[in-house]
Design brief:
This protein has five helices and four strands, in the order ββαααααββ. The chain is elongated. Helix 3 packs across helix 4. The chain is about 50% helix and about 15% strand. It is α+β, with helices and mostly antiparallel strands. The N and C termini lie far apart (about 55 Å). The strands form two sheets. It has a two-stranded antiparallel ribbon with strand order 1-2. Strands 3-4 form a two-stranded antiparallel ribbon. The protein has two domains: about 40 residues, no CATH class; about 60 residues, Winged helix-like DNA-binding domain superfamily/Winged helix DNA-binding domain (Arc Repressor Mutant, subunit A).
Length: about 120
């Protein structure tokens, strides 16, 4: 199969199999995919329960260590951006749960303090 693509300097012709082409499309951000596998994985991201999400987020926030509430929110959004995103209501639930578990505290001015242990 021959595919013609354009670059910033002109056109390029590449000969590859259909499977190779679909794999290449999956690597490109925002590229539409014609394969059934890619479509199904994009439509149905893996489902997590709330407790699994809390553990997932806590492990990553511990490594990242954002110092302000806005940074925590942006970090959580980034964690789920390729899985279909996350709603702001769910982020609020995660923050509340992490505070109840005493993973961190958020002061009135937005500063985040992590608890050791």
């Amino acid at each position: 199969m021959k595919r013609i693509g354009t670059t910033s300097t002109g056109s390029v012709i590449v000969e590859m199999t259909t499977q190779e082409f679909e794999a290449l499309q999956q690597l490109q951000v925002g590229a539409p995919s014609n394969g059934k596998k890619a479509t199904t994985t994009q439509e149905a991201p893996p489902k997590m329960t709330h407790s699994e999400r809390v553990t997932y987020v806590a492990e990553r926030l511990q490594k990242l260590g954002p110092k302000k509430k806005d940074g925590v929110i942006r970090s959580i959004e980034a964690m789920f951006q390729f899985g279909g995103g996350i709603e702001s209501a769910e982020i609020d639930r995660l923050l509340t749960t992490l505070q109840k578990k005493k993973f961190f505290t958020i002061s009135t001015d937005g500063r985040v303090g992590y608890n050791k242990g």
